[in-house]
Amino acid sequence: MLSRLRTLTGRWGSLAKPVRASLWFFICGVFQRGISVLVTPIFTRIMSPSEYGLYTLFNSWLELLGVVITLRLSYGVFMQGLVRYDRNKDEYTASLQGLTTLLVLVFLAIYLAFPEFWNALTGLNTFLMLCAIASIWATAMFGFWSVRQRVEYSYKLLGLVTILVSLITPMGGVLAVLSTSVFKVEARVAVAVIVQILFYGATFVHYMRRGKKWLVWEYWIQALKFNVPLIPHYFSQSALGQAGRIIVEALAGKVAAGIYGLGSSLALLMSIVNQSLMSTLNPWLYRQIKKGSFNRIAPVSYMGISAVGVANLLLVAFAPEIVALFAPSAYSEAVWVVPPLALSCILMFVYDLFAVFEFYYEKTYLVTIASIFGAASNIVLTFLFVTEFGYISAAWASFAGYVVFIMMHYVFMRVVQRKYMDGIRVYSLKVLVGIFAALVAGTLVLSALYGQFLIRLFIVGALLLVTLLKRNALMRVVREIRQID
């Protein structure tokens, strides 16, 4: 055992620092999501569906308001700026922290001037709104720091902070919820915000001391010029994921929002598979586009969609059992939210395969247009569906919104390919439609058999057998992606 541990340690030490950093960042991300999943059964049993619905609503508004308030300055523009101003990284970081803090304070002033308006709009009380603003600021500060750590491959401290926050927040949240019988949501949120301010606020002080200057007009103008045009895209993407929860709460109440929120969270578990696969596939796609090796992209992409699809079919197959494990019987209707949102999760993966061409050739306005139309379709259809068919139908409205989103990206991808790639058609539309039609059919069949566990088990066994027989083809794809060229 000891010799094996030494061997593993030696292999880890022999890896290049960027490789070690990438692996550690991935492990921390999985750990963070894993902890949030593991504590879900606890919170669904110590919080009523109405309370869980309010907490879900809080998180939805947290993401949407975060885009509007901070303009996502800690995202891609910050990474680009670190490269552009590589000799003044600390000054650049402090300056963008200062700009973000100013934006948060401006919104705080606007909120305090009209609290009734904002409370009515969001469905949150004043305490939760103030917590949301504080959390948005702290999370943005952590975003700046984490990007710096990733750029500099300083994975140890980032990993330690991620793990500590991931452990302390849910543990403190459980104790806080159990300590009160009235303000359970407020208690859980307050603990999370206090932990964020203590850990993430320290990163703000760190770079403000090192950078010293919080106002540098050149940096502010550069960041705003780059990011403001992308805000519709960022906001629309957030709306695609969060609009359903918000509209369900507004039209059907907090109990429905809690049930829908649980189903949505379980369906999006497979985003871990999406992100881990795409984090490996994305750099490879850029290399193939740069080299002009377009013929190598489609086979790998088809296999990737199939792999993600199989993972989501497994989730759909055992949705009744997973929901029963994660929550009491009051949440049982959440099972019907899982199938359409699992299909949406597959489309989220396909989006990256299409949008990579738009990003490579810097046609980001096309990305924004598709995001706006997808989000608008989602919002309109969700209102219509929930009003006519009930809150479960919001999941199918979300799926329809993603279909619109993906169709537009396919069209825009073809526009880019005709203009910059001599009209080369990288993907076959017939193959794409065929794969997705098979996944939709499988999802519908499995969801129709929710009362027949043994039949579902037999289908899953057959699916896994086919996957096993295709393992050689899968390994060839893995070797293709890992190949250094």
Main sheet: strands, sense, barrel = none
The portion of residues forming beta strands comes to under 5%
Mean residue pLDDT: 85
Number of helices: 21
Shape: globular
The residue ranges in which pLDDT falls below 50 over 5 or more consecutive positions are: none
Helix content: over 70%
Report how far apart the termini are: 37 Å
Radius of gyration: 23 Å
Core attributes:
single chain; 485 residues; mainly alpha; 21 helices; 84% helix; globular
Describe the structure.
- The protein is mainly α.
- It contains 21 helices and no strands.
- Helix 3 packs across helix 7 (126-151).
- It is globular and about 60 Å long.
- The model has no long low-confidence stretch (mean pLDDT 85).
